[in-house]
Specification:
- This is nicotinamidase.
- Its EC number is 3.5.1.19.
- It comes from Nocardioides cremeus.
- Residues 4-190 form the Isochorismatase-like domain.
- InterPro entries: Isochorismatase-like_dom, Isochorismatase-like_sf, Isochorismatase_Nicotinamidase.
- By secondary structure, this protein is α/β, with parallel strands linked by helices.
- It is built from four helices and six strands.
- It has helices at residues 25-41, 124-130, 143-156, 173-185, and strands spanning 3-8, 51-57, 100-104, 135-141, 160-169, 189-190.
- It has a six-stranded parallel sheet with strand order 3-2-1-4-5-6.
- It is globular and about 50 Å long.
- It starts with a strand and ends with a strand.
- The model has no long low-confidence stretch (mean pLDDT 96).
């Protein structure tokens, strides 16, 4: 079995101080960074991933996804705009270990990392399959939106999928609880 970690959207705009902050986003960045440092160092305590990748919201003009009067269900304040600091990874998350970053949502909403492409134009599913990955761990922001969509698409693409819930933060308790139930119902192991 070959396992990969997918780190979803740990970007400045989704952390405290950003345009669409998730409470606990900065802590997720620090916790993921600490785990990646263990992985890079190796040894018996290191997580057992063969590959580590990340996703980023990467919006140029996502249409109705952005709104000056957002409903926070299908429309949102401007966030992760290409060329802004808000699009960058949180400063407490060193992106060096990422083998690839999948950018999504240039001209559409694109919640799932499986909608993104790397610098070579590969989709996340194709990138993983080319490396023989059969199992994925998913973490990041936000549990009830992009993490949920990415994990559901991972299962739909045939990957054994585990959500690392301690390395996630959600927008709201109700929607996060509903997302976790939905993920389990679709075969995602919630760790």
């Amino acid at each position: 079995m070959t396992r990969a970690l997918i780190v979803v959207d740990v970007q400045n705009d989704f952390c405290e101080g950003g345009s669409l902050p998730v409470t606990g986003g900065g802590q997720v960045a620090r916790d993921v960074d600490a785990l990646l440092k263990q992985w890079v160092a190796g040894g018996p305590e290191a997580p057992g991933w063969d590959h580590v990748v990340a996703t980023k919201d990467h919006h140029v003009d996502p249409g109705e996804h952005w709104s000056s009067e957002p409903d926070f269900a299908t429309s949102w304040p401007v966030h992760c705009e290409v060329g802004t600091d808000g699009e960058q990874f949180h400063p407490d998350l060193d992106p060096t270990p990422f083998e690839a970053v999948f950018l999504k949502g240039r001209h559409e909403a694109a919640y799932s990392g499986f909608e993104g492409h790397d610098d070579d134009g590969a989709t996340l599913a194709d990138w993983l399959r080319r490396r023989g990955v059969t199992e994925v761990d998913v973490c990041g922001l936000a549990t009830d939106h992009c993490v949920r969509a990415t994990a559901l698409d991972a299962v739909a693409a045939g990957f054994d999928t585990r959500l690392l819930s301690q390395l996630c933060a959600g927008v709201a308790p109700e929607t996060t609880t509903a997302a976790l139930s939905d993920l389990e119902a679709h075969g995602v192991q919630v760790a």
